[in-house]
Specification:
By secondary structure, this protein is α+β, with helices and mostly antiparallel strands. It has a single domain, classed as SH3 type barrels (Roll), CATH 2.30.30.520. The protein has three helices and five strands. A five-stranded antiparallel beta sheet has the order 4-3-2-1-5, covered by helices on one side. A hairpin with a 2-residue loop joins strand 1 and strand 2. The longest helix has 13 residues.
Length: 106
């Protein structure tokens, strides 16, 4: 028997292909979107208005079924489309939960 054929007999058998992936997806915790209070909304509005292109920011935002964090240089702050672009990721104003602006990037 060749070494290859001999090695194949010791490979693990996966009779339920895709089952592990399905379990991983089920275990993923889905988080509902939090309601933004009037006070938090006013603060976020003030932060967004004070931001400009080239600012170094940290943003926590809601995406699909969970919250994500993105840090980097704001390449676009569009008050007409109501979105910020950070690291080529477009974030709608309505999905922002927390925003920190550290000023101009050097």
């Amino acid at each position: 028997m060749s070494d290859k054929k001999r090695a194949v007999q010791f490979l693990p058998f996966n009779g339920l292909r895709g089952y592990d992936e399905m379990i991983r997806k089920k275990r993923k915790i889905k988080e509902p979107k939090k309601e933004i209070s009037e006070r938090r909304g006013a603060f976020l509005d003030l932060m967004i208005r004070s931001m400009s292109r080239g600012d170094l920011i940290r943003c926590i935002f809601y995406k699909e079924d969970h919250y994500e964090e993105e840090s980097g240089i704001a390449s676009k702050v569009d008050e007409i489309k109501k979105e910020i672009v950070v690291n080529d990721k477009t974030i709608p104003f309505s999905d922002i939960w927390e925003l920190h602006d550290w000023g101009r990037a050097k």
